[in-house]
Amino acid sequence: MRLDTAQLLKRFFFAERSLLVSEASWIPAIAPMEIKTNLARYVWQSAETANSLRERVFELRFPSRMMEDEGNDRALIALFEAVRDSPSVPAFLVSLGTVLLPAVRDAYQSYLKASDLIADGPTHRFLTLAIAEKNEQISGFKSWIEAARSQNSQLWPEADAWSNEVGKRLSALGGVGVESAAPLLPAGLPPGAKPYSIPLHPARDPRFWPCRFYWPDIVDPSYPYGEGLQLQLRSAISHLNEVWAVEAGGVILSAFADILPWEWIYNSARWTYDESRHCRMGYERLMAWKLDPSWIPLGTYIYESATTVDAGDIALNLLGVLFFFETKNIRHKPERARLFHSYGDSLSEHDMDFDWADETIHASYGKRWLKELLAIRGQDPSSYEEVRKHCEKLVRDYVRTVTPSEITALKTAADLLIHKAKQLR
């Protein structure tokens, strides 16, 4: 019946919410670019599914607009949330990819078989899409796990033990399923849990040239931003290095998930996904030019400017730094798109045009949610500009820590990349 259906869909909502919050929080700790960017996409997909579930629950419970806590499903959702405290990246990947994601997919399939296509047609539509996305996600996790097992065997006994424990606890709860909630499990995290903390230094894909600052003009104003080929290359490098924004988006989503309302999670999931698209834009352009990844700088300085010892509130800083860069560079995007058009570079023009549209949305996200967060903390919402200025200073101060040897190495790397690009194009 209607209210029973609403209860099941509420369970699914909280499961999706937990999945996406955990996935978002782990993005900075994972090195491979493919996993970072696809996790961001999975976060967005789960947010879309969760939002549809949430709205459907409201429809079925009309006129109530209350979405209370997990209720009788509290033990189940607590287990989902425990995966955020996985002891390692392999443990996180295997517990999500082989236990939780399949459990959610199977529950959706069971729901569609048991429910009425006519009476509950709206739910059938979005859960059918969600099943297809879950199958894609499970396949992605499987490939990542297989690749990771071949590279580092030492961490896998611990990861498998963790995943097995999560699986046992899920079975004891009856899975996600479509049945009534199971009795509560004993309190406490699974053995081996490591309380989550925001990574101070983001992991980097070893295929790329590792550095803090990814282009000389960041640390040496005399180094030209460039035009023509150099501008095309600089733009692609900048897009690739928006990986820091993917990481920051994931951290802030999870850090404020229990403080700000659901719409924050929904907006920041889109924000994180958009940044992953920009990152992929740069990567695909650089690969289309047949440049070797080992020549390409992949930096950390923007993320680390928010996490330094004296930085204070890391999550707030990451939100403020994101807002700062969204508002700092947006004015340049239309002009660069026009320049790329004049060069006959339709791909760079296309990417920059879509980037501009995204950043317009992101600037509004930053302003709105900084104000709401400050208000919740009992601070003046209008002081969001002070947060932006503080984060601008954090970045500026961090740039001043560059060493002469870093500048020399960076210029050498950039000059080599420009030279290689001229040869290959």
Q: Would you tell me the structural class of the helices and strands? A: mainly alpha
State which percent range the strand residues make up. under 5%
The number of helical runs is: 15
Give the number of DSSP strands. 2
The percent range for helix content is 55-70%
Radius of gyration: 23 Å
Largest sheet: 2 strands, parallel
What layout of secondary structure does this protein have?
Blueprint lengths: L1 H25 L6 H28 L13 H9 L6 H26 L6 H31 L4 H17 L36 E2 L18 H12 L2 H13 L6 H27 L8 E2 L2 H5 L8 H16 L3 H10 L3 H31 L7 H16 L4 H21 L1
Parallel strand pairs: 1-2
Helix pairs in contact: 1-2, 1-3, 1-4, 1-8, 2-5, 2-8, 2-9, 4-5, 4-6, 7-9, 8-9, 8-11, 9-13, 11-13, 11-14, 12-13
Structure in words:
There is one protein chain. With 425 residues, the chain is mainly α. The chain has helices at 2-26, 33-60, 74-82, 89-114, 121-151, 156-172, 229-240, 243-255, 262-288, 301-305, 314-329, 333-342, 346-376, 384-399, 404-424, and strands spanning 209-210, 297-298. A two-stranded parallel ribbon has the order 1-2. The relative contact order is 0.12.
Quick rundown:
With 425 residues, this protein is an all-alpha fold. The chain has helices at 2-26, 33-60, 74-82, 89-114, 121-151, 156-172, 229-240, 243-255, 262-288, 301-305, 314-329, 333-342, 346-376, 384-399, 404-424; strands at residues 209-210, 297-298. It is globular.
Q: Which key features would you list for this structure?
A:
about 425 residues, 2 strands, mainly alpha, 15 helices
